[in-house]
Design a protein that fits this description.
single chain, alpha+beta, about 30% helix
C-alpha cells in the first residue's frame, strides 16, 4: 500500500514547512538547539503519530466491542540509549529508541478486565506495529 506523499521544504534553517494533502504545519528545533522554536520537532511528530494512532485504535476497538470507554488520554515520551548498554536488546551498535506510552482510560463502567484488554489492544495500533517492524528508508536524489 502506497500512501500520498508528504512534501517538506527547508530553506537554510531547521524550520521545515510540511504539506500533507490539504494540511500544512511547520517543524523546527528549539532555539537551544539552533532552531527558531516555531513548531514541534520531528521526534515530537513521531511521538504524536504513535499517540494519535493508539487513541484512535482504542476508540475504534471500544466502539466495535461495545466497551464503555468514554475517552483516552495518551502521553508519549521518547528516549534513547546506547545499544551496548541494553541487556535485553538484539542490536548491539548505535542507539535503541524507546517510546513509553502511558494511557489514562476514561469510563466509570470499565471493568479491570476491559482495562487490561485495552492495554493489549493499544499495542496493536498500526504505527506501533510499524515502529516495531524492520524499516527500510530508501533515499534518492530527484531531478
Amino acid at each position: 500500500m502506497t500512501t500520498s506523499p508528504v512534501i517538506l521544504r527547508a530553506r537554510g534553517s531547521f524550520r521545515t514547512e510540511v504539506e500533507a494533502g490539504p494540511y500544512r504545519w511547520v517543524l523546527d528545533e528549539p532555539a537551544d538547539f539552533g532552531g527558531g522554536g516555531e513548531g514541534p520537532t520531528p521526534y515530537d511528530m513521531l511521538a504524536s503519530a504513535l499517540g494519535g494512532c493508539t487513541a484512535m485504535t482504542l476508540q475504534f476497538y471500544a466502539k466495535r466491542e461495545k466497551i464503555p470507554l468514554e475517552g483516552v488520554d495518551v502521553t508519549v515520551t521518547h528516549d534513547r540509549q546506547h545499544a551496548k548498554d541494553c541487556a535485553d536488546c538484539t542490536t548491539q551498535s548505535g542507539f535503541i529508541h524507546r517510546f513509553k506510552v502511558e494511557l489514562v482510560l476514561h469510563g466509570e463502567q470499565l471493568t479491570p478486565e476491559q482495562r487490561e484488554k485495552l492495554l493489549v489492544i493499544a499495542g496493536r495500533c498500526p504505527v506501533a506495529k510499524t515502529l516495531q517492524s524492520e524499516i527500510r528508508v530508501d533515499k534518492v536524489i530527484a531531478a
